[in-house]
Specification:
192 residues, mainly alpha, globular
């Protein structure tokens, strides 16, 4: 039997794939929510149960990666912050490398539309906040919270740079290698 979480994930991925296909076929502001819903085999109401705008559908996978990150960090909860962040990013990279094409297509669609930059920024801000929360720990003072936000932004900068290189990489290097190598540059500043 399919759990509610599995059904939700499956629906979100179908919606994302349908949106990206239609965004590829036309400009991202052209397909309607109804067309995306029809292609995904769901109702229009279902689309807006999960996202605010149809453009958000291109970023379903990065949003779902928060779940992978949380599980991965929990697996190594008693390790230093650097190890937790590296493990979380590593697990997400492995997930992407297992099925890279939908991610690559979604990122390419998003990069071709200035209107999608704001939606990507919203997802990115959620990621920075999640990473900063992990770095800061419970009840941080103002200085600790600021440091955590700076470091969370740096980690996301590395991940964004790795994704940008990976999307355009003609050699097809695994994303996990780029992310691991990029995060190694932050190793000296990622500590508890």
């Amino acid at each position: 039997m399919v759990t509610r979480a599995e059904h939700r994930r499956s629906t979100l991925l179908r919606l994302s794939d349908a949106a990206v296909e239609l965004f590829e076929e036309r400009h991202p502001d052209r397909p309607t929510a109804e067309e995306i819903a029809d292609r995904a085999g769901v109702s229009r109401r279902t689309v807006f149960r999960y996202v605010e705008t149809k453009e958000d559908l291109a970023f379903i996978r990065p949003t779902l990666w928060l779940e992978i990150f949380d599980r991965a960090v929990a697996e190594v909860a008693d390790t230093p912050i650097r190890d937790r962040i590296l493990h979380g990013a590593h697990q997400i990279s492995l997930d992407i490398d297992a099925d890279p094409e939908p991610v690559r297509r979604g990122l390419l669609v998003a990069s071709r539309s200035p209107g999608m930059a704001g939606r990507y920024g919203a997802v990115n801000r959620r990621w920075v906040e999640r990473i900063a929360t992990e770095i800061a720990g419970p009840d941080p003072d103002a200085d600790t919270a600021f440091r955590a936000h700076v470091l969370g932004s740096a980690v996301m900068g590395v991940i964004d740079a790795a994704l940008a290189e990976w999307v355009e990489d003609p050699r097809g290097r695994p994303l996990v290698d780029l992310v691991d190598r990029g995060l190694d540059h932050l190793a000296p500043i990622l500590h508890d």
